[in-house]
Amino acid sequence: MIRFDQVSKMYSGTSRPALNSVDLEILKGEFVFLVGASGSGKSSFLRLVLKEERPSKGKIHVLGQELNTLPSRKVPYFRRSLGVVFQDFRLLPQKTVFDNVAFTLQVIGKSKGFIQEAVPDVLKMVGLGGKQGRYPHELSGGEQQRVAIARAIVNKPAILLADEPTGNLDPATSAGIMSLLSTINANGTTVIMATHDSGIVDQMKRRVIELISGQVVRDERAGGYQTQAIPVQKFDMTGGLGSRTSLATARPPAPETKVEPAASPFEPAAGTDSIEIPVAPRTVAPAPRLAPESGHPTSTPSWVPVPKRDTPPAAAAAPAVAPTPAAPAAAPASVTPVEARDEQPETPPALNAPPPALNEPGRRA
Ligand SMILES: Nc1ncnc2c1ncn2[C@@H]1O[C@H](COP(=O)(O)OP(=O)(O)OP(=O)(O)O)[C@@H](O)[C@H]1O
After folding, report:
1. Which of 213, 217, 249, 288 is nearest to 9 (CA)?
2. Of all atoms in ligand 1, which is nearest to the CA of residue 13?
3. Exposed e or buried b for every residue in 249-265, given b needs 16+ CB within 10 A?
4. What domains are there in the chain, each with its CATH number?
5. Which residue's CA is the closest to the ligand 1 atom numbered 30?
6. Model's pTM, two decimal places?
7. pLDDT tens, residue by residue, 251-268
């Protein structure tokens, strides 16, 4: 579904790559956390998936498409399969909840009838059924993020990219957002979330990819935020230290091993809507956890590299989370906020402003 082959990204005017020889694969239905200190390359990774940036080296495949060869005119259509959520919500302040979600559908020319059906459905799914007439300033932060998520998923994207979606929320509200993302994932959407929130990562027990200075140093199935960092290049399965083969081999365990996420407090128990709200400690980005002199890991890796696979993870086939009763019966089609940035006739700031998380102001190459 997403494959990075020896991808490096060097922004112009910089001396160090934001991403350095990244080699990984994310399968349909996975829920992946991207962790790492500020500046380690998480947002750059997401921007590359979105084709907001081009790799300086290497190839990126997303949904069967090699992005280097994707013509610009096809990018908006490509992005219809991707939803994006940001830390700062990026709602249109002058539009109601309904209109914020409807706007992206209008941009791609969906009919009024379609919009009238799809928007209430998705708002109900994110728990905002009764608030569609409100304006963003009349909502809590968590509710605003739910609107942003509704906007991102109204077209049932194959992939949802979330850049610090809980970064502005308190722990209890974050738990609600994570529960929602879990449900979206259980309904078939691949979720990739960049985060500094150790409590969430530790409790969700999903795949964790850790970046340090643009390099993948850990790729752990059902991992935690603080697990010892393992330099992938040093974990040699083929006899060739740091070789292309060993990197390609250093992929997460096969889906056949079925990573059934352990019961997570962010996921409602089967047959119920109740979610235990954990009070997870917030942390800032950690310092690299390599042994200071050698750069070698300080403990045995807890993951097992395996060859590439093409089949979806078992967890996707058998969702750990029962879809909520409020989930829409039919999949509405629409457009992601990303695409709206490309195609919208006006330039509403919330959709067009350079995204701070993915495109920090003043840093565009
Ligand atoms: N447009 C840009 N132009 C130049 N350098 C950039 C640009 N975007 C990012 N960088 C640099 O690339 C590196 C990775 O940045 P990136 O935003 O991907 O990190 P991050 O892990 O997402 O950080 P954070 O957790 O703070 O959001 C940093 O050194 C950053 O300064």
Report:
1. 213
2. 4
3. bbbbbbbeeebebeebb
4. 27-52+67-245+258-269+276-303+312-352 (3.40.50.300)
5. 39
6. 0.69
7. 444 443 333 444 455 554
